[in-house]
Amino acid sequence: MQAEPKKSQAGNAREGAAEPAVSLIGKEYEVEVGPVAHGGHCIARTAEGQVLFVRHTLPGETVIARVTEGEEGARFLRADAVSVLEPSKDRVEAPCPYAGPGRCGGCDWQHAKPGAQRRLKGEVIAEQLQRLAGLTPEEAGWDGTVMPAEGDKLPAGEVPSWRTRVQYAVDADGNAGLRRHRSHEVEPIEHCMIAAEGVSELGIEQRDWSGMASIEAIAASGSQDRQVILAPKPGARLPIVELDKPVSVMRIGEKDGGTHRVHGRPFVRERADGRTYRVGSGGFWQVHPKAAETLMLAVMQGLTPRKGDTALDLYCGVGLFAGALADRVGEKGAVLGIESGKRAVEDARHNLASFDRVRIEQGKVESVLPRTGITEADLIVLDPPRAGAGKQTVKHLAGLGARRIAYVACDPAALARDLGYFRDGGYRVRTLRAFDLFPMTHHVECVAILEPVEKGR
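^ thats the sequence. predicted structure below, dont judge the formating
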């Protein structure tokens, strides 16, 4: 009996292969828009029940949503509202000519009244607290408001010029612009409305940047210092930088990725709490002109430092909170700052050199803190990156027995997760304050003050 010929592996693969997913990009749905979600969009559902994350809309609107990412069977789709059939009373005409579907991705809420933007951010914070930490606003000691920065409370249709650091991308023709939403494509612009005056006056958008991959423009709010940081494309030569105002120039090294001085100061000078801070190229400083002072005051008011206290400033950057703490704990107190960035540590040590009992250590908090041998502290400030501090670091901090802990957060989801870990470690939220330090975007800054749970509670 002749054996049946074996089927080829290729044939088997063809027979068992899954059908390719059908892309839904470009498909349009008429939807009623539901609540706001974390990330600058609102939630809607198709008639089939598939979740849509829709940008350029507001809760309660009826819109035509065009899919920008996703396929059949996906857990959710991303979409833009390309036509508004029933607008919200909170909708305004976007002041910026570059805002809208498929355009600049820098702002999320140009189409919402300023007060509505803050309400939306408050709703996101409340939802994240409830979902990830099991906390109501009342349990978090929060009245539910998101406060505007001084000078930012403007009428609908007006945009505060607050961004003191702007990262420009460069298109193939050498034009400076901003990235489109979730894209590497560049939207060339003539002017960014949220850029601070000190950035706009440099005239970055008016010149040819051929050969550059990106330009970062920095306008210090604590001085007249201006700086540009150039990132050349591989093999490109630096241009002669002639801008409309005096400016120092730095470049990103092609081989080492480090920031190197071309001419001028390799830092800018900022002010907060009556002190000048040196911030080196690539170093972190709050982008809004009022942010550093606003957050510093919120932290100090919440912690109420005492003379002789020992304090930790974690993820300390150039030493903003460490300096404020050192002023308040006095000569008998002590402050330890921990920061991973080498240049930021150099700046922090320079900025706080006048304090004998301030020490700055370099490295990741989760690695350095256990090596210090510190077993207790009176006060702790942590201002972690967007991902948060994480379970192990929070567990370590909760074991130090601090009288109060100040958690500064730029991401409400990370904040809520870490607050849950602190609760497991025996801490409760005493107060929470929220600040709109990134108008027109979905970003929001929070300061939570924690204290140990009393025995028997």
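The chain has nine helices and 23 strands.
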